[in-house]
Amino acid sequence: MWTYGKASKLKLLTCHGQIQLLCWEAIAVMDITVVCGYRDKKAQNKAFEKGYSNVRYPDSNHNVKPSKAVDLAPWNNGIDWDDKNGFYELAGIMKALAFKHDIKLKWGGDFNGFFDGAHYEIQTRY
Question: How confident is the model over 49-75, as pLDDT tens digits?
Fold first, then answer.
C-alpha cells in the first residue's frame, strides 16, 4: 500500500475537497506524487514562462483557493516525465474515480494542442 510523503500531503491540502477525495483513492491504486496544488502569481507566471502551463496568473484553476487543479505524477523512486504510459494509466484511474463520484474532471492530456499529462482540474462552482 502506498501513501503520500509530507510534501505531497501539504500540496494536496491546498486543493478542493473533491480533488483530495480523488487523490486519496488514487494512491491506493498506484504510487503517485502531488507535484502542485495551489499556485500563487509568481509560481503561475514562472510555470507559464517555462512552458509548463499555457496560461498566466490568474487564469489557471491552480490560482484559486482551494485549488480547483492538481498536478500528479506516477512515482517510481522519482518522476519520469517521459513515461507517457504511466501518465495515461494514472489518467484512467483518476477518470474512473471521478466517474464513480460523479465529479466533473478534466485531464490535461486531453487538452487541444497542449499536452499536460500531470494536470487534472475539476469543474465546480464551489
Answer: 999 999 999 999 999 999 999 999 999
- The whole model's pTM is what? 0.95
In one-letter notation, the amino acid at residue 96 is A
- In order of 4, 116, 126, the CA distances from 101 in angstroms are 21, 23, 16
Task: Please give the C-alpha separations between residue 111 and each of 68, 80, 121, in angstroms, as whole numbers.
Answer: 16, 21, 11
Distance CA 73, CA 110 (A): 16
Of 67, 3, 58, which Cα lies nearest the Cα of 32?
A: 3
Structural domain boundaries of the chain? 6-122
Cis peptide before 58 (omega within 30 of 0): yes
CATH class, domain 6-122, is alpha beta
